[in-house]
């Protein structure tokens, strides 16, 4: 198929409502600028500790990605490297989101494990119904909570590719996965329309191999994601990388220069060259939780102290094929891993929810 023919086919598909990318749920201007992820892109989400990086990836890619795949009968699979969360904690977060999505119930792991509080007995029926939905989501995820180095991650991604496609060396099909170590130069997936998303959560917890530095360990994972997952397999790798604390100083707060930056990527800044998309997430109210009197009160019409810990500002640092530099403040509920666009004509409803949740 020629380039012109491919473009015409894409237009035909688009007009029929058929999309060839992984769509994000609507989240204000952010998803107008970045409506989703294309195959072959390397995307990184970055933020300081506890800013909501993992929650944003789960909400955009995991929860709503699986929901989209089920509703539209799409082949979709996530290879999740959970360096921080155990598999049980991860599935608890899935259950939290489903309970909110379906019943507007706010529970998390502390409620499930009865740490000072419990799930109400009158909610047991809704809990069981929500778990049935979670069970339908399980086949869409392969979760690894015991792989901590770049070689292990590369092998896991390659194994998925082998089980779902064909490797060739100089035109000859390779029959066994052990043959891949001797070299291969071409790969054909069984289903080119399948969406495969390896998620690396997160790079700061990588284990170095032998005398490898943390800097090199991060570089190796990102390079494997770029060269193999994205380029050779046409997957959609998503990486989560910390920001350092340079944006949290008094001068930054005074000048309102607190959003994530490319130079703030922790432990390895050079890997930003491999990211086609780089998305930052910032908890602006942290500027009001430290001394100095330089906290941010208003941000683009939103009263930050009134939203407290329920505001998050998402900024696009890098977008190879689209809009760069914009930021959007959204409503965030960390308890059930949920994000919502803020309707600025109804700000009081969000301020009231913050009071209710904090009560």
What does this structure look like?
The protein is α/β, with parallel strands linked by helices and 359 residues long. 35% of the residues lie in helices and 20% in strands. The protein has helices spanning 3-15, 29-33, 53-72, 87-103, 109-112, 124-137, 150-163, 214-230, 250-254, 304-307, 347-358, and strands at 22-23, 36-37, 43-47, 76-82, 141-144, 165-169, 172-173, 186-189, 195-201, 238-242, 277-282, 298-299, 302-303, 311-319, 327-333, 338-341. The strands form 4 sheets. Strands 5-4-9-10-3-11-14-15-16 form a 9-stranded mixed β-sheet, sandwiched between helices. A 3-stranded antiparallel β-sheet has the order 7-6-8, covered by helices on one side. Strand 15 (327-333) and strand 16 (338-341) form a beta hairpin. Helix 4 (87-103) crosses helix 6 and helix 7 packs parallel to helix 8. It is globular and about 65 Å long. It starts with a helix and ends with a helix.
Percent range for β-strand residues: 15-25%
Strands ordered across the widest β-sheet: 5-4-9-10-3-11-14-15-16
* Total number of strands: 16
Helical residue percent? 25-40%
- Secondary-structure-based class equals alpha/beta
Work out the radius of gyration: 21 Å
Instruction: Report the span from N to C terminus.
Output: 60 Å
Largest sheet: 9 strands, mixed
Number of helical runs?
11
Topology pattern, helix = H, strand = E: HEHEEHEHHHEHEEEEHEHEEEHEEEH
Mean model confidence by pLDDT: 94
Shape assignment: globular
Uncertain ranges:
none
């Amino acid at each position: 198929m020629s380039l012109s023919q491919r473009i015409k086919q894409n237009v035909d598909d688009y007009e029929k409502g058929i999309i060839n990318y992984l769509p994000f749920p609507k989240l204000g201007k952010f998803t107008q600028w970045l409506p989703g992820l294309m195959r072959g892109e390397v995307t990184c989400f970055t933020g300081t500790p506890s800013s909501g990086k993992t929650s944003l990836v789960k909400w955009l890619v995991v929860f709503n990605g699986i929901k989209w795949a089920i509703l539209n009968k799409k082949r979709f699979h996530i290879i999740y490297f959970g360096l921080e969360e155990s598999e049980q904690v991860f599935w608890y977060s899935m259950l939290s989101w489903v309970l909110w999505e379906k019943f507007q119930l706010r529970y998390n792991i502390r409620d499930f494990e009865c740490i000072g509080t419990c799930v109400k007995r009158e909610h047991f029926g809704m809990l069981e119904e929500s778990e049935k939905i979670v069970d339908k989501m399980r086949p869409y995820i392969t979760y690894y909570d015991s792989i901590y180095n770049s070689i292990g991650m590369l092998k896991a991604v390659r194994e998925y590719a082998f089980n779902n496609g064909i490797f060739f060396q100089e035109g000859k099909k390779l029959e066994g996965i052990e043959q891949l170590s001797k070299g291969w130069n071409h790969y054909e997936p069984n289903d080119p329309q399948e969406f495969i998303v390896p998620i690396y959560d997160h790079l700061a917890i990588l284990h170095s191999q032998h005398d490898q530095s943390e800097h090199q360990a991060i570089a190796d994972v990102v390079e494997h994601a770029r060269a193999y997952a994205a380029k050779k397999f046409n997957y959609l790798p998503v990486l989560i990388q910390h920001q350092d604390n340079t944006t949290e100083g008094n001068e930054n707060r005074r000048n309102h220069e607190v959003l994530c930056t490319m130079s703030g990527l922790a432990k390895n800044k050079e890997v930003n060259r491999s990211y086609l998309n780089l998305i930052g997430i910032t908890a602006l109210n942290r500027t009001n939780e430290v001394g100095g009197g330089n906290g941010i009160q208003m941000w683009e019409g939103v009263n930050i102290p009134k939203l407290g810990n329920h505001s998050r500002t998402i900024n696009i640092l890098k977008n190879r094929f689209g809009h760069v530099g914009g930021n959007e403040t959204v409503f965030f509920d960390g308890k059930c891993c949920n994000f919502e666009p803020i309707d600025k004509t109804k700000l009081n409803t969000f301020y009231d929810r913050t009071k209710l949740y904090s009560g």
